Amino acid sequence: MDIFSHLLLGAEVAFTPINIFYCFLGALLGTLVGVLPGLGPTATIAMLLPLTFSIEPSSALIMLAGIYYGAQYGGSTTAILVNLPGEASAAVTAIDGYRMAQQGRAGPALAIAAIGSFFAGSIATLLVALFGPILILIAQQFSPAEYFSLIVLGLISSIALAHGSVLKALAMIFMGLGFGLVGTDLYTGESRFNWGFIELADGISIVAIAVGVFGIAEVFRNLERKGNQGEAKVAKVGSLMPTRAELRASAGPIARGTAIGSLLGVLPGGGALLSSFASYAIEKKLARNPGRFGNGAIEGVAAPESANNAGAQTSFIPMLTLGIPSNAVMALMIGAMIIQGIVPGPKVMTDFPELFWGIIVSMWVGNAMLVILNLPLVGLWVRLLSIPYAILFPAIIAFSVIGTYTVNNATFDLLLVVGFALLGYILVKLECEPAPLLLGFVLGPLLEEHLRRSMILSRGDPMIFFERPISAGLLAIAAVILLVLVLPVVRKKREEVFVADE
Amino acid sequence: MFSDKKSLYSGIIFSALGAFLCVDAWKNLEIGTALRMGPGYFPIMIGGGLLLLGVAVMFSGQDRTTFDLRALPWRAIVLVSAAILVFAYGLRPLGFVPATALMVFIAAKARPETSLQAALLISFALTVFCTLVFIYGLSLPLPLFGSVLGV
Fold this sequence. Notes:
The structure holds 2 protein chains of 2 kinds. Helices cover about 75% and strands about 0% of the residues of chain A. By secondary structure, chain A is mainly α. Chain A has one domain (about 5-500). In chain A, strands 1-2 form a two-stranded antiparallel ribbon. In chain A, helix 2 (about 15-35) runs parallel beside helix 4, helix 5 runs antiparallel to helix 6 (about 105-140) and helix 7 (about 145-160) crosses helix 8 (about 165-180). Chain A starts with a helix and ends with a helix. By secondary structure, chain B is an all-alpha fold. Chain B folds into 2 domains: about 5-65; about 75-135, no CATH class. The longest helix of chain B has 24 residues, at about 5-30. Chain B is flat, with a radius of gyration of 24 Å. The mean pLDDT of chain B is about 90. The chains are: A mainly alpha, B mainly alpha. The interface between A and B is large, with 63 and 70 residues.
């Protein structure tokens, strides 16, 4: 089958009324949480993960995917209009976007952001369709040793995403791996670390961890602030049409942003956040007059917005093809597959082609919907900013809790939610980021399985990981990343980059 | 060195959990050899790694930071946790509607500025909404009112 018949199959799935509905719902919810500060895509997907249990697998993943890339659109709207990035990856957009809005050019900024996102989204969707199958072909040649090394690489790279101390991020990965141990040993059937709780026989529920660490812990954080936040000042939108000069100035940044985003999205540890920061930095370097950046340069909106959307899209490649998530959202997508009884990995494309290609085509559909949702309805979204947190957070709690309960009808899972919310909150207060913990948790069982298989193959000789060239190469990259991250120069740069994210 | 309290405390959490994993695996699980790894082999590796990393984090502190347990938003933490537990243990005896209403009400009061009337209103509105979404929309097989209420 060639790519056209693949995409045709995907279109058949994506264009069924029910899936168009779920795609729309995802895009809508994504825009909503992108606009609302205090509620990001990770928390939202964690919250809705349990609900996907009762719908079709392809519809579920189409909707969850829509939330992720939809949030990239929504985040830029508030970044431009109120200087309030609803989404971390839109933080750089706020720098020049809000300046443009103050200068009365909010309309063109929003339009360029939408055009750039749509262009990037379309290209990235094609890239997923083109490179997904190739990567799967390569992955099918992988022995357990290569998988082991690939997972190590994925885990190490996730540190790049976390702020602050590399050591703490590494420890968070190990803690996640530790939680992943709970349950039944695959080889002997012996139960591990369940302390007599029969509910833990199948391991800790990913929904409970995600809802606790990302959903409820986030509520604690938001409730730290006393009193009402002041009314946000919303800039006037005015005419949406960019001038010809603005369009011309944006073309290059959009193209480069798309390229950078697509590339960084595929890398483990990458995704929307890293892409937008990197592309902004590159545009500033390339500009003839870098002084314009920070003062309303349209390139500073076009590049990061294209990049974060491209990155959001291509980060699906390792998740869909290898079953290895590159960021916390993708880890939750893996969780959604597992809930549905689908084993993530290279077999997904051959075993569930409708699911695989349906998701890919739906991304393009969703991107088109988002342009329509965002540009004409921009006023509506901005009005949403006035939804008081007093109403929002009880709703978040109710949805997360009821949803978590319904996955297994387990009271026990709700106790876990409370426990993980407390743990996650304390760790965040101690400046330990939760994303590596979730990746460690999801990848832990895979890591162990491939380690044990490799050791059986090599008769107990750990050199197997270094003697096989691909495996050795992957481990070498992981080592280089780790070294680079602890170098003082890079550490400083990283801190600077993340300052904008606070 | 230990004036960076955030590194010190997080390091303690990491190493305590690591030590616990090691001890529990050592006592209860068969370790095996590199060739034939038992169920305890990988846990010992992870636990040991976590223990060492935790110690490293403890000593990695650079800046002086503080961490004050009393400064945490205890009202929110206690009330939100209580709300979840009330739902968890109230769902079967009370039924979906009362359990949800109680949970939302307690949670809403986690924010001190929310008045009693506002919390009741939020509770009512969200209970209606959740009932529509979960019971009628997603047709979850949960009783609306439990046997305790005699309905």
